[in-house]
Amino acid sequence: MRAIGRLDEDAVRTRPGRGSRPRTKRRPAHEDAVRALVTAVDRGRYAVLVAPDTPGERAVTAVKARELGRERVVCGDLVDVVGDTSGATGSLARIVRIADRRTVLRRTADDTDPVERVIVANADQLVIVTALADPEPRTRMIDRCVVAAYDAGMDVLLCLTKADLADPAPLVALYTPLGVQTTVTARDDAAGIGGLDRLRHHLSGRVSVLVGHSGVGKSTLVNALVPDADRATGRVNVVTGRGRHTSSSAVALRLPEQDGWVIDTPGVRSFGLAHVTPERLLAAFEDLAAVVEERCPRGCTHAATAPDCALDEWVAEAAGAEAEARARRVDSLRRLLAARTGDARAD
Ligand SMILES: Nc1nc2c(ncn2[C@@H]2O[C@H](COP(=O)(O)OP(=O)(O)OP(=O)(O)O)[C@@H](O)[C@H]2O)c(=O)[nH]1
After folding, report:
1. Domain end among 264, 297, 328
2. Does one domain contain both 159 and 260?
3. Alpha helices per DSSP H over 228-319
4. Where is the signal peptide (predicted)?
5. Which of 92, 104, 213, 336 is least enclosed by beta carbons within 10 angstroms?
6. What is the dihedral of CA 150, 154, 156, 162, to 10 degrees?
């Protein structure tokens, strides 16, 4: 994907005698543009929220302006829209600009096909919803989600559901050394879901993308968190207002009291990671990245089998509990490096 910053730079034209601020060719044509948040995408139609979190906030349907070319607009994007931005029935606005993205969650079609697709923009954290039983947790799939999140520049929250059926402790121990936060939910005696307040605390004020395999209880959580989620994603197409929401792309749902957003991703079951380089993954492990940069031989893969990988030396330099903690961290990094090249279809 081409970075938007680059695109603007390409279009820069300086105007002698009119100050030093560079201007883009396009900007003057769209001085009336208003800022909007993309909440859903369906076959060329975009549901956007104009002037979000202001008294003038309104839901508008938009199309992409031709000048954006092949640039993809995704859920979570902040965009500028022009045209009929009233939101009145039948009105249609045009998206003319995509703002720089803070984070970009991507996936590759599969591990041998390095075509990247942006799934969601500007999210803060990836919430990996995993059942502790029924279905059994798949750590390879969790690892791959962690890699995708770190590559995106996002935090990770592991939400372990169905704790009424199995003990969460082993998974919590496995993921804590990776810097992954965990939270646990369970069916309670009244057949409701317990642990929601702790989950809400993690989601508060943030933009969170929820991923999870079928049957893990993701819909149960989304419906509990966002009381009208069913209406937003189920019976009515959120973009066109007609029929069912048939697309499998992401949908942003606002948490009550404007306390953040959850982005549900019905179609995302696994992450192809061919685009993730070891460097991009290492960047999420600041302590290990520093060791690697200073001391690893050129071309080191940092795998357990790599000769002279400085990470082994770094573990051996410590003693007692510190050595154990370092070893766990290095093992975790190596597990994620290996997860990058696993078979996405096996997830
Ligand atoms: N025991 C137990 N069952 C749960 C819990 N949460 C959800 N379930 C059940 O697990 C099943 C799957 O839940 P859903 O919320 O539909 O799961 P999903 O991840 O959205 O799955 P899809 O709808 O297939 O995408 C349902 O029968 C839920 O009632 C839990 O905490 N404990």
Report:
1. 264
2. yes
3. 229-230, 278-282, 286-295, 310-316
4. none
5. 92
6. -120
Q: What is the pTM of this model?
A: 0.84
Query: pLDDT digit string (tens) for 82-119?
Result: 999 999 998 999 999 999 999 999 988 776 667 888 99
In this structure, the answer to whether residues 192 and 93 fall within a common structural domain is: no
- Alpha-carbon distance 118 to 171, whole Å? 29
CATH number at residue 58: 2.40.50.140
Q: Is 217 annotated as a binding residue?
A: yes
Please check whether residue 314 lies inside any domain of the structure.
yes
Are 250 and 126 contained in the same domain?
yes
299 annotated to bind ligand: no
Residue range 311-322, pLDDT digits in tens? 999 999 999 999
Indicate the burial class of 58 (C-beta count within 10 angstroms; 0-12, 13-18, 19 or more): middle
Q: What residue type is 259 in one-letter code?
A: D
CATH of the domain at 178: 3.40.50.300
Find the 169 Cα to ligand 1 centroid distance in Å. 21
Q: How is the chain split among helix, strand and coil, in percent rounded to 5?
A: 30, 25, 40
